[in-house]
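Hey,

The postdoc asked me to send both predictions to you directly instead of through the lab channel. I've kept everything plain text so nothing gets mangled by the mail client. Protein one:
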Amino acid sequence: MRLGIFGGSFDPIHRGHLDPVESVRRALRLDRVVYLPTAQPPHKPERGFAPPHARFAMVELALLDRPELRVSAFELTPGRSAYTVDTVAHFRQRYPEASLFLILGADSWLHFSAWKEWQRILEMAQLAVMVRPGWQLESFSTEIPARLQEAIEAERVHLVENPPLAISSSEVRRLLAEEPMAVASMLPDLVLRYINKYALYS
């Protein structure tokens, strides 16, 4: 099996989290992609989020009509920072025969060598980087670390180009509070109905 994993706060999940990942799935012929809503991202310790169970529910609703995309509660333990290396190790242990792909945005790629035990992540999984057309792996502000360069040369880092989608969760949250009708095209309908029902961002 070819398995992708894709983590984030998904606060809330929007089309920018969906269409690019579908492009990765098709380009790399992944059998399944697992979304991992995070209870508390370690790089955002001070920011408040919608409740973890609500963000999990929104991801589940967003993926209902996409059978190859699933959601996991592995990173939802309240009060515990979720480090990607632990998540990758979990899926490597659970699916020892799978070809495992960690899906990242280009911004995450630029900071990947600062992640906890990033070298170990490279040992367990390949990287799938979602990028704008024309973006290059060499787009680092500093020299690429040797271990990361080795992964690139071994073709364990894959670029998947996507047309840019000018959507961010922070912008969606702002519009939900100030101009709710403006977000209809940004969110799956069931997600928007769930947000409105529970007034998550009002």
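Protein two:
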Amino acid sequence: MYIVQIASECAPAIKAGGLGDVVYGLSKELQLRGHAVEVIVPMYDCMRYDQIWNLHMAYEHLHVPWYGGTIHTSVYCGWVHGVQCFFIQPHSHDNFFNRGCVYGHNDDYMRFTFFSKAALEFLLVTNKRPDVIHCHDWQTGLVPVMLFEQYKWLGMGNQRVCYTIHNFKHQGLAGKDILWATRLNNEAYFFSYDRLRDNFNPFGLNIMKGGIVYSNHVNTVSPHHAWEARFTDVSYGLGHTLHIHQNKFSGILNGIDYQVWNPETDPHIPFHYSVDDLSGKSKNRKALRERLWLRHENKPIVAYIGRLDQQKGVDLVHHAIYYSLRRNAQFVLLGVPTGQAIANRFWHEKHHLNNNPDCHLELSFNEELAHLIYAGADIIIVPSNFEPCGLTQMIGLRYGTVPVVRGVGGLVDTVFDKDYDQTHPPEKRNGYVFYHNDPPALESALERAIGLWHYYPEEFRKLQKQGMRYDYSWRRPAEQYLAVYEKIRHKEPPPPAPPTPPSPTQTPQK
């Protein structure tokens, strides 16, 4: 099968979050299964060019239709650790991808609208006809719209689209200018509630909604988060749209790269170990203490790795620091604050705890240090307010670092409480889960984890090994995506529902 992934990230060349890891990991696994996979991404000035091999010009003069003219665009080709990628580089005064960062500009909706248009134009003029185009998040939500409304009439009528939503919070709200820029033009048609009109802003076009309406299959990145998106507020207003299109909506759990995350071979850790021999983990704990100037005492290390923002439960992360110290444990944090208020708060804590021999806060991100923390820590907390999938807890399990997680999204699908889980036998349980979003709930789970380490060390080691035996690689997710691809490639693309304008008093529903 020939598959083209269109996304705004592909790790490790372009990585702002978990999206990049997913695009790379899934592409690599599909290649290993014998499928032809190509990835189309923007050519940012801030890419890790050292992670791209044999970068060369693939198509020098691509003229992308844009408003009443065209934008001269070049397309480069290179290999990111064995995955073939095409990089879109527009030559325009708009300077779409030379901003020094991936996201965060007021015209992001227009930047990625152009990228989506350019990706389709590149496929068209180079006569690339993939069986499946796999798009990711709002940045590529217009790809299925333009494919159905424009490019199928130009010779791309057999291409099918799988659309994966990694985060419902960011949906790409835009105005009518994206219609005129892409030459979709027909405002009355696309401002229908059954097409792109935002469910709650009658003057806005919702790019993610367009992806849902026009794609052949839609999924989010865990089964439980798919349920949450349908029946709770984590879909941020798209629940009604998902209800209408429920027959093509599912949840497929992400995986992690078991070559990158492997305690038996990891080049970033000083001592290797396995589920059959955990002795190297205690040596890594000692190495972690030496690197971070923590004192050597017989107590567990509790860790947090990830962004410091509201999604990740930043208030509970803060609470966990002091609770762990009170309960005779050490605490290590590695994360980048998002927003000035959160940054100020944690820099204050870093200065306050600077001389505490049981605590280290690293307010940055360091890949090598992350590997060492996973290998050296005993417990890792993931107290997210919402979590579509979560990779941290799966990496923790891989390294024998017991996860303590809040019962949301993909965390529910991957961590099963040692004491209270009713769906798995005791020998299949692998961590601790709490549900309420408050300090007592976190404490109830974290206390059980710390207490098991102190008072029942053999049981703790048994729990570590049970977690390490789980397979959260890309093997099973790739099988599920291939099943989706096979299903949609043999079906005619369903047109969007006919427009049904609301009455003057009608209010759109979730």
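Summary for protein two, as requested: The CA atoms of residues 58 and 76 lie 5 Å apart.

Thanks,
C.
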